[in-house]
Design brief:
The protein is an alpha+beta fold. The chain has one domain: GMP Synthetase, Chain A, domain 3 (2-Layer Sandwich), CATH 3.30.300.130. It has a three-stranded mixed β-sheet with strand order 1-2-3. β1 and β2 form a beta hairpin. The protein is globular, with a radius of gyration of 12 Å.
Length: about 80
């Protein structure tokens, strides 16, 4: 049984809190933007992560991997366009 939307968002935010512990070492941050109906999670990097040339690697190998391991409702993690 899938959880309600609010529960999924709360679980996503919990995973992002854990990810931010590592990103904060380099003065970076990742935040939840929205979860689309098709399972695409949108996030936004800030701090030093916003302009970091390794942002794509951090997104895929760090944030997306952590989310996909724990949140089955999420199918992919992408950067927010704004």
């Amino acid at each position: 049984m899938l959880d309600s939307g609010e529960d999924v968002v709360e679980r996503i935010k919990e995973v992002l809190v854990e990810a931010n512990k590592y990103l904060a070492i380099d003065n970076g941050n990742v935040e939840y933007v929205n979860l689309e109906h098709d399972g695409i999670l949108r996030v936004r990097f800030s701090g030093s992560c916003a302009a970091c040339p390794l942002k794509p690697m951090t997104l895929r190998a760090g944030v997306e991997r952590a989310i996909l391991l724990k949140i089955e409702e999420v199918k992919r993690v992408e950067l927010a366009l704004s």
